[in-house]
Task: inverse folding
């Protein structure tokens, strides 16, 4: 367990201001061109952060987890879920991570992925979905898309949820970060694309039911992180203004 002193709202707002990334409007709606970091606060081994960064649990692998969870609400067959993985590879591209520690599992350094594999029911997954997740990763590896390698130990002192599409916060190792609206937007977009491609009819309430499952997967991880850390919710505006919700 992290025993570092919990971060105050003043401290977390300063970190957010000092490390704010304003995402250019032309990039905000192109999920394939956005690099999806995990919410993990640790740093990538290469200092190559760009202005096209978002932070969501598990990176784009986390989107795959959430969409499979949502598809389970539609009773989608195993064969069609296999097709959905191919659609997601084309629509999303690939991003996932591990860390510099030794793991038996590919991407085992990602807590969101590891927890989903270990406790699939809590993430709305079926046992057969686990092979599909590994299939997504190995499809990326076959294209020489290697996991980002995060360095160091967990020293996060707060969990930060960011509303809005205007920006995110560059990881500093001190906070867990999640772009809530990007997470929901990416899953909604991906889910609709898959259902259309598979010829599955749906109504708005069906999408909302699927999104509730996706939100549940996110909340499972956030609740685990925030069990011993303060949770802050930010609104980020195009001007760069940051407001912490009460």
Result:
């Amino acid at each position: 367990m992290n025993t570092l002193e919990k971060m105050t709202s003043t401290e977390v707002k300063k970190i957010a201001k000092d490390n704010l990334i304003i995402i250019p409007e032309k990039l905000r709606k192109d999920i394939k061109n956005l690099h999806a970091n995990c919410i993990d606060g640790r740093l990538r081994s290469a200092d190559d952060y760009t202005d096209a960064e978002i932070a969501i649990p598990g990176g784009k692998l986390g989107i795959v987890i959430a969409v499979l969870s949502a598809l389970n609400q539609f009773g989608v067959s195993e064969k069609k879920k296999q097709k959905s993985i191919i659609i997601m590879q084309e629509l999303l591209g690939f991003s996932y991570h591990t860390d510099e520690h030794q793991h038996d599992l590919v991407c085992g350094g990602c807590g969101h992925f590891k927890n989903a594999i270990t406790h699939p029911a809590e993430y709305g997954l079926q046992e057969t979905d686990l092979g599909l997740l590994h299939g997504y990763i190995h499809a990326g590896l076959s294209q020489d898309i290697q996991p980002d390698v995060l360095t160091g130990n967990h020293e996060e002192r707060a969990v930060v949820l960011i509303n809005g599409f205007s920006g995110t916060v560059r990881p500093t190792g001190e906070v867990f970060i999640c772009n809530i609206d990007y997470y929901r937007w990416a899953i909604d977009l991906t889910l609709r694309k898959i259902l259309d491609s598979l010829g599955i009819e749906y109504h708005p309430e069906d999408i909302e039911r699927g999104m509730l499952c996706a939100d549940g997967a996110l909340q499972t991880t956030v609740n685990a992180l925030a069990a011993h850390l303060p949770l802050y919710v930010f609104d980020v505006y195009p001007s760069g203004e940051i407001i912490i919700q009460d």
User: Anything to note?
Assistant: The radius of gyration is 17 Å. The CA atoms of residues 188 and 207 lie 7 Å apart. The chain has a mean pLDDT of 90. Residues 9-44+51-244 form one domain.
